[in-house]
Write a structure and sequence with these properties.
The strands form two sheets. Strands 1, 2, 3, 6, 7 and 8 form a six-stranded antiparallel beta sheet that branches. The chain contains two helices and nine strands, in the order ααβββββββββ. By secondary structure, it is mainly β. The model has no long low-confidence stretch (mean pLDDT 74). The protein has one domain. It starts with a helix and ends with a strand.
Length: 176
């Protein structure tokens, strides 16, 4: 038997014994003492580039392209649609956190009406940024743009030329 085979066998045995060493059940006390451990790491770089060959959302009666991404939301029981339209640019972040937190007046949420014991979701992004980004908030009578009878009212357009960096966290909770 060659020394390579013996060395490979020894290496596999050492790795196998150390991997199995951490696989044991934790009792309730040990489990409650575990906090702040690393979880899933997530990063993204999304680029919403306009491709005129694939979009046909020019003025009524034309086929001129050049629109960005369109996201449609239909409120429950609503007759129309809330639209984020013409989304263009790049959005990226290097890490994300998701946590369930307690929200109350002691935590600085008195103005939002959070009562004692309220729970919320805290979403954080590390090094989040928008590059040359734009979007339009609109109301529409149809989900698909440009169909027969299509009407859309643009309410707000946000546009940046350059880079916008995100700081802080987003808290999502039910308001009374």
């Amino acid at each position: 038997m060659s020394s390579r085979v013996i060395f490979a066998g020894l290496a596999v045995w050492l790795v196998a014994t150390t991997v199995g060493a951490e696989l044991r059940q934790l009792d309730e006390g040990e489990l409650q003492a575990v906090s702040g451990q690393a979880g899933i790491s997530l990063s993204a770089n999304l680029n919403y580039a306009v491709n005129p060959a694939n979009t046909k959302c020019g003025p009524s009666g034309t086929t001129a392209g050049g629109c960005g991404v369109r996201l449609i939301f239909k409120p429950a029981g609503g007759v129309g649609y809330l639209v984020l339209d013409n989304i263009r640019g790049a959005f990226s972040f290097e890490g994300a956190t998701l946590d369930i937190v307690g929200l109350d007046s002691a935590a600085g949420f008195a103005a939002e009406g959070a009562t004692a014991g309220t729970k919320g979701v805290k979403i954080g992004l590390t090094n989040g940024r928008f590059d040359n980004f734009q979007w339009t908030l609109a109301g529409s009578n149809q989900a698909v743009a440009g169909g027969a009878g299509f009407k859309q009212i643009d309410l707000l357009t946000y546009k940046t030329n350059g880079q916008v960096k995100l700081q802080g966290n987003l808290y999502v909770f039910a308001a009374p």
